[in-house]
Amino acid sequence: MKGTEIIVKALKEEGVDTIFGYPGGQAVDIFDALYGEKEIEVILPRHEQALIHAADGYARSTGKVGVCLVTSGPGATNLVTGIATANYDSVPLVCITGQVPLGLMGNDAFQEVDIVGITNSICKYAVTVRTREELPRILKEAFYIARTGRPGPVVVDIPKDIQQAEGSDAYPEEVNMRGYKPNQSVHVGQIKKAVSMLKRAKKPLFLIGGGVNISGANEEMRQLAETTGVPVITTIMGKGAIPSDHRLYLGNIGIHGSYAANHAVSECDVLFSIGTRFNDRITGKISEFAKNAKIIHIDIDSASISKNIVVDIPIVADARLAIMKLLEYVAPLKNEKWVEQLLQWKEEYPITMNNYDGLTPEKIIQYINNHFESPIVTTDVGQNQLWATQYLELQSGRHFLTSGGLGTMGYGFPAAIGAKIGNPESTVIAISGDGGMQMNIQELATAVALELPLILIVLNNGYLGNVRQWQELFYQKRYSNTCLRYRKSCEDNCTDKSKCCPKYTPDFIKLAESYEAYGIRISKEEEIARAFDYALGHKNAPTIIECVIEREANVFPIVPTGKTLDDMIMD
Amino acid sequence: MKVKKRYISLYVENRIGVLAKISGLLAGKSYNLDTLTVGVTEDPAVSRMTIGLTIDDITFEQVKKQLNRCVVVIKVIDISEVPIHKKELLFIKVSSCTEKDKAEIFRIAQAFELEVIDYDRKNVMVQCVKTEGANNDMIALFNDIFVNRIEVVRGGSVAIEAISTRSQ
User: Fold this and answer.
1) DSSP state, residue B77
2) pTM for this entry
3) Which of A93, A120, A195, A459 lies 20 to 30 angstroms, CA to CA, from A82?
4) B15, B71, B75: best mutation site toward chain A, by most A Cβ within 10 Å?
5) Which of A407, A432, A94 is nearest to A237 (CA)?
6) Tell me, what's the ipTM?
């Protein structure tokens, strides 16, 4: 059996029915082996970066491993941003990169790069296959490593001559790696300690990160919150861990978190955190973070524990297994006063955009909340993402896909393509800004080719809005390189938005039409329903809803860099 | 936070790119390592590294965890607090030696149990197998006596757990 045939066999054995591929000289043999293959659909995005984001969106929304197949050199390097994106957010991917033949490696051959060297620090594992004999074992290990433990991207670099070489057709059934033994149990002693600390708490709080969504512990998490009566806050990756409209849910923590959530962290006496890395976006000034609290931390990745925050009770375990174990020991706590106070804050200080008239992102997202049953929503990065994290209501995990760790612009639209492919029955909505949308705009061709009825919301304020907001608040309105309506003939240092700015390019509606997609532009609140109805009318093609919003709308609250979480600018 | 010298003994897969992976990981996380030595073990599929760092407790814990989560790492052993034997190979070449210099070098060699392993009319080379600290002292001594005339190469510490409780 040829190397390429064992690759196809491996994909089938691993249950892969969809891969995201872009052919090239050193991958052409693998594509040849996939030609006419009935069990595996190959998706052809129009750029490798979008390709890997699509695979990522597919993986996040389905829980399956996303598979990328690209050629050597530029095909491989175009994956780099997507690999880092998946790595930060613990997304299981197997990225197969073609490589020049072994004999040419190191010779600076055409389209040769050391992709393993390049990606080593941004993936879970990267390996070059050096013999035909080890190819099946390495593929088996790649899938195992990608999906177990803290999931992540794995790069398998396969030289062309190994793809072509004949060898055994056996695909291993088991993995035995001496260097990789993911934790598959829970330390009961630590669980008991945690429960007893929780029992003694007067102001306990759950801080939930992406780990709960990844491990599929949403139902268990809801039970845990309800059984104990302890309020829940989430990171943006943890959003959806329990339903957003749950009584005990206070909102997101972090630099754009809710008043109740951020103040809860500062006030709590036991912070019980599950599946979060205590990233700087959620902690604010680290020395002041949860300064009154003892901290319990469950994480599958021991390196995430006590990395940023010193933890009192560490528990290295899968979130779901740990929560199930906790459920055996926890009992209702009596913290009514504390809970009441938090719920009062939640009531008194909601996040709103009431300061702005007309069409606001809040109203658009509220429309989604009110009119769609469990849609999958992807975002790009910037204000669009932050507004989505603030206003979107979620019932469960795997329905909100966003580049939380790396913050990758250009992620949202291709991720939506992957999510729709993985969930053909779900409504998939991508929320982007006018900046990020253009980073992978070419994927309109992919979405049209695949006849995907995506709803693509472009919040168009003509700015790279998040940076512009920073410039407004912290850089004396020096809008350096953030205006997307800028033309060379503009005056220097323009700050007067009342004057007539040049026309925005591109015209998203005409652009959509040129791809044979649909487009509608709205600028008033009353038009929201019509726009969504228009989009829903297209069953076989994507629709861009371009929302022309207030140019200088800001995301509030915001915690300035270096400040403590409860030191928030509210509006 | 207290910074002190620590050692890790690291078993890794003996494969292309593993040294780069480990050194890249440490560099990428801004962990400054003092020494890193590597060589194949009794099992040709396994290499063993000795990594020396001057580092505080919290960062050192992170280093160990980060190494542990590497797929190519088989075992991380913290040998900072256990009895170990550790040695480093050091060569010092002294050039433009007079007869008096040569005599001095031989005297030093005798006093400190160094080995003179090579010389000609003008140059002398000594070999020193001692701890990193003792080697630092030797270099300082030679630098002091033979100003701008020494050339040094050193291998970094190799360390192994002691059999009895005595250690070096």
Assistant:
1) E
2) 0.95
3) A459
4) B71
5) A407
6) 0.90
